[in-house]
Design brief:
The structure is a homodimer.
Chain A (H helix, E strand, L loop, with lengths): L29 H15 L11 E3 L7 E8 L5 E2 L2 E2 H14 L3 E13 L4 H17 L3 E10 L7 E11 L15 E4 L5 H11 L15 H9 L4 E6 L4 H13 L2 E5 L7 H10 L12 E5 L4 H10 L7 E7 L6 E4 L5 E3 L13
Parallel strand pairs in A: 5-6, 10-13
Antiparallel strand pairs in A: 2-7, 3-4, 5-7, 8-11, 8-12, 9-11, 10-12, 13-14
Helix pairs in contact in A: 1-3, 2-3
Chain lengths: 352, 352
């Protein structure tokens, strides 16, 4: 477990002297060291000496199988209702590990800062990362800081890579999906994308739409601990539910059928989507996933997921079928079948 | 071992249709998939299905001790004499693992692309990464692609995180350094920084100065296999030799003495440094390191290092002393002692 991070609200780099990030903060000299020691290590509660050397030495226990993943985060704006780039950089990577049935243990953090970034802004981001790491019991053990000239970046980009210990005895992947499996959807769709775009464009809705950003490690570990036969997991980020199901259908060579009536979308989110011309099935989420589970375990899996706050609105939303192999289909409320094709790109750029 | 990558010179994405990277290439849809499947996986020789899912599953064998590191690469220009951002993103991270006594096994690759980047440029970079990975026998097993709007990035930034298996029985770190240890310097200094800055600023010298960029895994593994008592290793990147020795002296609480006459700097590099106002002791290298070894092993270590092309000009350049604890000192050719202080930043921004 990491040391308790220091969450004082006061930026540990003296703002009077260094109001903004300078090129020298990425130069490998005393200013970079100050940034690492006073700000990063402190917020992350990292005490390992290795964090200041070229590599961290770790000893992940467990079965010997390790999950390894990476994501860069370029979300704009940096802060949005329900989250920020810092918490996202931790939860996003923790979630990718969870989707492989792995418990996240170690993260790396690579920062690309734009010259002129207010030091206070960086502190808020870094503090948020530290809080998110503490909440998910992951240790940020190694990192890197680069600074690019003004106009060659956009405030801050963060890359995290994550190492997790695989807790699932069986392989969790599209390859394991079988005809007849139930498809559990963990909650309502579309909030993250709408929250970010509304925040970026200065659009206000009648109700506050907050991102669904949440760590998914606990709920996945609970499914595994409960003995649920989990076949495949996928979080519903870029491209949303439709793209995720499409990819799985294609990789697994099976058909996927989803009931529109079992896909929760909040009224305000649906309204915002209509207003902005988006389809909630393709909008990115940051705390939602689908679980393909053996049919016999479906109801028990639903109970387990609903027990967690991030899965309170979970539904058994569909099933794996023999027909329509390679394709995902939505059974609409009026009884028609709508193919869920892949889009060429994301409707909403820079939402993660 | 990775599959033999496909190094055809023809860009696998049809340039006529997609001459430049578009926002949609980072959107999680069909265009991103095309980029990943046709370009990245092909150049990297990655066949693991996991590379297309949320996490890669790996089983690093060995002692159970794993080294984990990360670096983001923002070098400008993307191509410079002796290397490019792609080869650097592989070798740099492989080298950080080597400095922990670890053999690099797996890499992640996170791309932040700027909208409008020529597809051909991306292909050259990615191909170079693939070649570098093959040369160092590392597998690029997981990745991520983001695209930022024009003017919010700078062509391409790459983050790699690396996992290596620790091969050294003893801890390799400043903590292990002892008074009396010999300090081996693996070669001449200053070429990388000068090559990049000259290329960026369009400066031409009489002789071609190429970066010293090189993978250091083999030479480090040879030292360990040779039974050399290696105490500490450090590659001489940002901040150069002076900053590295300074940090080690401080961490280890020892004095470090270096002989100027044993620090090789090529005449053309020295001339360029004088012209540009740089000190070669602080200029970044990408294929140079110092090894702190037990005094009794020094000559044998030197032989091993010189046997490798990247260490042909190695020297025993100094020793660890009791006096001057926490500081590094240069004994000049005229017999005076010059303290090697830390600079506040790098003299040359964006050289890695």
């Amino acid at each position: 477990m990491p040391e308790t991070p220091d969450f004082t609200l006061v930026c540990p780099i003296p703002i009077a002297d260094y109001p903004n990030v300078m090129m020298a903060h990425g130069g490998g000299g005393t200013l970079m060291r100050q940034l690492i020691e006073k700000m990063f290590l402190r917020a992350f509660g990292t005490t390992d000496a290795g964090a200041q050397h070229d590599s961290a030495i770790i000893e992940p226990a467990g079965t010997g199988k390790i999950a390894f993943t990476t994501d860069s985060y370029v979300v704009s704006p940096l802060f949005f209702p329900g989250g920020d780039i810092g918490s996202m950089a931790v939860y996003g990577t923790v979630n990718d590990l969870a989707m492989a049935g792995a418990r996240a243990r170690y993260l790396s953090a690579g920062f690309i800062l734009e010259e002129g970034l207010p030091m206070e802004t960086l502190w808020r981001v870094v503090r948020s990362m530290g809080e998110a790491a503490r909440r998910t019991s992951v240790r940020i053990v190694t990192g890197d800081t680069k600074v690019v000239d003004r106009g060659k970046g956009d405030g801050v980009f963060i890359n995290t890579a994550g190492i997790g210990v695989v807790e699932s005895p069986a392989e969790i992947s599209p390859r394991s999906v079988r005809v007849g499996d139930a498809i559990l959807l963990s909650g309502d769709l579309g909030r993250h994308g709408i929250a970010v775009i509304a925040s970026r464009e200065g659009i206000e809705f009648e109700t506050a739409i907050e991102s669904d950003l949440a760590p998914l490690g606990d709920v996945v570990m609970a499914l595994l601990a409960g003995g649920i036969a989990v076949r495949c997991l996928r979080d519903l980020t870029r491209g949303g539910l439709a793209s995720a199901l499409n990819e799985i259908a294609e990789s697994a060579g099976v058909g996927i059928e989803i009931e529109e009536s079992k896909v929760p979308v909040r009224d305000d989110v649906r309204g915002a989507c209509e207003l902005l011309g988006f389809d909630p099935l393709y909008v990115a989420n940051e705390g939602r996933f689908v679980a393909f589970v053996e049919q016999a375990d479906a109801e028990r899996a639903l109970e387990i997921v609903r027990f967690h706050a991030c899965g309170a609105n979970a539904e058994i939303a569909g099933r794996v079928s023999e027909s329509g192999a390679g394709r995902a289909t939505l059974k609409t409320r009026i009884g028609t079948n709508r193919p869920l094709d892949m889009l060429s790109g994301e409707q909403l750029p820079r939402i993660c």
